[in-house]
Amino acid sequence: MRSKRTGGELAQALAACRPAMRRFAYTLVGPDQADDLVQDAAERAWRKQRLFDPGRGSAQAWLLAIVADQARQRWRRPQPAWQELHPEALVIPASDTATVDLLRAIDALPARQRAAVVLHYFVDLPLADVAELLGCAPGTVKSQLHDARGALEQALGDSYAHD
């Protein structure tokens, strides 16, 4: 059964999720269009708030799915928006070589692994929400993250491993 959200509940959800929405938008469309994409997604959430079903996922996952959908509509891409994530656009101080190397290594990952890494480690989504956004099971996300960590370790070498 669908839940009717009040304007106040949606406003609270948007306020709580806006940083994650912005980080996700930044990786989808880059710095020049991220704020516009978040604004478009917030507007769509207001218009479609009656469609939110807490039984199908969290408010954050729903809002991030709207961000991804708005990015797809904006660019009219046939593939899912997460396949076009740009890790180099993440808001991370790139003051050292290690950060630059890490972002390049993430960018070299296959699209699904790259999306899982960005959504889980940079947007801070729980595995269940990442799975919902990627349209797969949480176990698949765990597998993608495991494979991505292995590829990153191989690409970066032992010096980048654990502190």
From TrEMBL:
User: Under the GO molecular function aspect, what terms does this record hold?
Assistant: DNA binding; sigma factor activity
Q: Which family does it belong to?
A: Belongs to the sigma-70 factor family. ECF subfamily.
Q: Which UniProt keywords apply?
A: DNA-binding, Sigma factor, Transcription, Transcription regulation
Family matches, as CDD domains: Sigma70_r4 (cd06171)
Organism of derivation: Flexivirga oryzae
Q: Tell me the Gene3D superfamilies matching this sequence.
A: 1.10.1740.10, Winged helix-like DNA-binding domain superfamily/Winged helix DNA-binding domain
**NCBIfam families reported for this sequence:** sigma70-ECF (TIGR02937)
Q: Which InterPro entries match?
A: RNA_pol_sigma-70-like, RNA_pol_sigma-70_dom, RNA_pol_sigma70_r2, RNA_pol_sigma70_r4_t2, RNA_pol_sigma_r2, RNA_pol_sigma_r3/r4-like, WH-like_DNA-bd_sf
* Residue ranges occupied by any RNA polymerase sigma factor 70 region 4 type domain in the UniProt entry: 101-152
Protein name as annotated: RNA polymerase sigma-70 factor (ECF subfamily)
Q: Which GO biological process entries does UniProt record here?
A: DNA-templated transcription initiation
High-level lineage: Bacteria, Bacillati, Actinomycetota, Actinomycetes, Micrococcales
Q: Does the record bear DNA-binding in its keywords?
A: yes
Q: Tell me the ranges covered by the RNA polymerase sigma-70 region domain, including all copies.
A: 16-77
